[in-house]
Automatic annotation (TrEMBL), chain A:
The active site is at residue 263. InterPro entries: Ald_DH/histidinol_DH, Ald_DH_C, Ald_DH_CS_CYS, Ald_DH_CS_GLU, Ald_DH_N, Aldehyde_DH_dom. This is Aldehyde dehydrogenase domain-containing protein. CDD domains: ALDH_F1AB_F2_RALDH1 (cd07141). Keywords: Oxidoreductase. It holds the Pfam family Aldedh. GO terms for molecular function: oxidoreductase activity, acting on the aldehyde or oxo group of donors, NAD or NADP as acceptor. Gene3D superfamilies: Aldehyde Dehydrogenase, Chain A, domain 1, Aldehyde Dehydrogenase, Chain A, domain 2. It comes from the Eukaryota. Belongs to the aldehyde dehydrogenase family. SUPFAM superfamilies: ALDH-like. Residues 24-486 form the Aldehyde dehydrogenase domain.
UniProtKB/TrEMBL annotation, chain B:
It comes from Plectus sambesii. InterPro entries: Ald_DH/histidinol_DH, Ald_DH_C, Ald_DH_CS_CYS, Ald_DH_CS_GLU, Ald_DH_N, Aldehyde_DH_dom. This is Aldehyde dehydrogenase domain-containing protein. PROSITE patterns: ALDEHYDE_DEHYDR_CYS (PS00070), ALDEHYDE_DEHYDR_GLU (PS00687). Pfam families: Aldedh. Signal peptide: none annotated. The active site is at 263. It comes from the Eukaryota.
Length: 495, 495
């Protein structure tokens, strides 16, 4: 993108209703909910609130659109790809509005919101390219048979999208689902529905057939739960907390055993060896934690530093955090905005207090920022030990933990001593340390001398309680496929 | 195998204890359970009964064997393959004893038990070949990075094995798990533990390191449940009823979100068009239902016959069922043995009664066979309609349903009108009918002019409530892998 767009400070959403069968409709109940700006506490808009009855309509529409013989099922795979590319084009054309809406909804700095919109475009283009390359195989089975596999679309997919990177994470699910030929019902987070709603209109404009893509804004316990339990939903993909991930899996078990993909929480270890480039490691570790106000499932929330460089690292990290500018996300001088809502804000402050109580050394920050908006001071704790709550529980806020270690074996053990397993990083110049750590850490992603490098090309997802399944890469596409094996009797086979 | 082994009628198991860490031990509680022969009601042996405490020990052993740096983790992948091939050799060496034990335990005709043992050896050989071919990729991501994926073993795997093909289905899970480098705790069905226990000794003989393979004989609600809920089990693979499959998924959601593979029930449609080879279709359909006394998850339990040939088909199928020889499974003249236990026996007879009550036309059979053993008469119902219980519920017994249809569109609709989706078949000579049906029926396996062709090379598993995940083929191996993405910052990348 050649030119950075200018922010539209008072951007108003054009679409605030439910999107079912390519039409904008009100909720069955007539209820609405307020969508607020966490930097100013102002209401951005009233959004129609969907519940189980609306989910039912949307699923019916998605099921109809998935029927054998429907326009979507009869379409060439390459044409699906063209439509997905067209949606990418439209996102790009609407960058200014989408980034401004995202900035108001989430509170993330405007330039990061622009980055998110660009990422959404990239994911759609990547997925578009896969559409006509989703291949089964022919297989040399024993006996007089001809056997092949087909990768069919799994069917009606529910996608529950979180509030930390709304439009970007929406495309992680929608891109592959459409590429594979599925139909969708999406529930955006209630804190941040606006860009998903605008996206729906872009799908219609791009020529996506009615019923293929539907959006039900609403709450988890009502709309989200209805999707998770629905007997006509073939698959659910959820990004959010581990706690809710469990509910989703249980709901699948109690309904129709729908396929489940979960992208959950993390407490990712970030290991800095004495031979690392110190300044680079400090900066990368800082961004690894503080990016998006700490609201990343893959946040570098346990920074293990080898003892030889520990004091220097703590000093430099503290200085870096002190320099962080926090305020109005539309003002380009601010690196951080507010936390997304009151619930997160309270939880983070409570965990900060636990850090103080349990004896961590507060180097900077440690309190809220007075005034309007959910702003928290960038906080650094040193001398953290593994048993402290701030070292075990996911904070999802601007709070960095720095922890001392001695040997590589110890680093591996302590890094793996968690029920999470989403991401990890190692900072070193030594090839043996890099590869040993990379192979030993039980996490879906390992970064070496970098952080938050997530790309549509490479699979992303959790070990252990950080989730099940992968998004991105070929694996992300396959998550939306169901494999069918066809075996045909033949008179005389030859190899 | 050139020579068929002779059956050992009174074959006694050598191993009846728990197998933990390459040692045979008694259960913690000291309890045993009786393993009975369903053809004679005689006790074959007393087997040690494991419960949660024993599961705990086994999981500890499996976890220890999976630790970084363990012999199993340090072993070349090709060496894992060699060990798996060695186990296959030992299965073949002991095939006479194994087939005799299987025949006593399940009640299946001896020749079929021999076939099961051969299938088990073949399965292991197939998986052995995969061990050093489980490959990640290098991926051309955007930016100055070098990115690769590794397919790591998912970890400690629980395998719960059913009673219908004990040794064969054991190898479906064990072969892939060992090839991928996982460790296992297996719970065989309480009705049929003997061949799994003998297999454990063969693993030890083949030098599978201690703790890599463990067996806890016992019951579902105790030992099975303990495995499903265990916080140190990384993955569970279950073959059995849909009802228990739900419990397994819930247990995962309530414990540590362990990965879940489920191979569940079915009500598979078997569609015969007027242009099919009639005699071949009758025989294949008969075999598709009655094989293994109807005790197959893939049984051809809804046979749809096009109206032009319906009467002939019913007449020939009835005649074929009347000719079926049922009795002592060790006697080579018998095509069928007994059902596996009293619970199944009662359930099947109850469903037969429902068929009569709901108005299906009983052509032959329809009652138990008097005398010792759980023997049921081969039963054929004609004029079955889709709403009858015998057309909707899984019977898992020697009861064939024949149903009339008119058009191909109707056949597809009615075939797909089920919550199950495990297998399906179509009998026709017409290429368009064959491919249309194959592509339209929502089932994990579609057979054309054949049935029950399940091979190690091609993926097998369920759509919808018939399960999640695939066994066999490359996909079956990947079920035991966890994908890790490693991204390394580089100074200057080139394509």
């Amino acid at each position: 993108m050649a030119n950075q767009p200018e922010p539209v400070r008072d951007a108003k959403p054009k679409y605030t209703q439910l999107f079912i069968n390519n039409e904008w409709v009100n909720s069955s109940s007539g209820k609405t909910f307020e969508d607020k700006d966490p930097a100013t506490f102002e209401k951005i808009a009233d959004v129609q609130e969907g519940d189980a009855a609306d989910v039912d309509k949307a699923v019916k529409a998605a099921k109809e659109a998935f029927k054998l013989g429907s326009p979507w099922r009869r379409m060439d795979a390459s044409q699906r790809g063209r439509i997905i590319n067209k949606i990418a084009d439209l996102i790009e054309q609407n960058t200014q509005l989408l980034a401004s809406l995202e900035c108001r909804d989430v509170g993330k700095p405007f330039v990061h919101a622009v980055g998110d919109v660009q990422k959404a475009v990239n994911v759609m283009r990547y997925s578009a390219g896969w559409a006509d390359k989703i291949s089964g195989k022919t297989i040399p089975v024993d006996g007089e048979f001809f056997t092949y596999t087909r990768l069919e679309p799994v069917g009606v997919c529910a996608a529950i999208v979180p509030w930390n990177n709304p439009i970007a994470l929406l495309t992680w699910k929608v891109g592959p689902a459409l590429a594979a030929g599925c139909t969708l019902v999406v529930k955006p987070a209630e804190q941040t529905p606006l860009t998903t709603l605008h996206f729906a209109q872009l799908c219609k404009e791009a020529g996506l057939p009615a019923g293929v893509f539907n959006v039900i804004p609403g709450y988890g316990p009502t709309a989200g739960s209805a999707l998770a339990k629905h007997m006509d939903v073939d698959k659910i993909s959820f990004t959010g907390s581990t706690e809710v991930g469990r509910l989703i899996m249980k709901a699948s078990a109690e309904s129709n055993l729908k396929k489940v993909t979960l992208e959950l929480g993390g407490k990712s270890p970030n290991i800095v060896f004495a031979d690392a480039d110190l300044d680079e490691a400090v900066e990368v570790s800082h961004l690894g934690l503080f990016f998006n106000m700490g609201q990343s499932c893959s946040a570098a929330s346990r920074t293990y530093v080898q003892e030889e460089i520990y004091d220097q690292f703590v000093a430099k990290s503290t200085e870096r955090a002190k320099k962080k500018t926090v305020g109005d996300p539309f003002d380009p001088k601010n690196e951080s905005g507010p936390q997304v809502d009151g619930m997160q804000y309270k939880k983070i402050l409570e965990l900060i207090e636990s850090g103080k109580k349990e004896g961590a050394k507060l180097m900077t920050g440690g309190a809220k920022i007075e005034g309007k908006g959910y702003f928290i001071q960038p906080t650094v704790f040193a001398d953290v030990t593994d048993n402290m709550r701030i070292a075990r529980e996911e904070i999802f806020g601007p709070v960095q933990q720095i922890i001392k270690f001695k040997t590589i074996e110890e680093a591996i053990e302590r890094a793996n001593d968690t029920s999470y397993g989403l991401a990890s990083a190692v900072h070193t110049k030594d090839i043996n340390k890099a590869l040993t750590l990379a192979n030993s850490l039980r996490a879906g992603t390992v970064w070496v001398n970098t952080y938050h490098a997530i790309r549509p090309q490479a699979p992303f997802g959790g070990y252990k309680e950080s989730g099940t399944g992968r998004e991105h890469g070929e694996e992300g596409i396959l998550e939306y496929c169901e494999i069918k094996t066809v075996t045909i009797k033949v008179p005389h086979k030859n190899s």
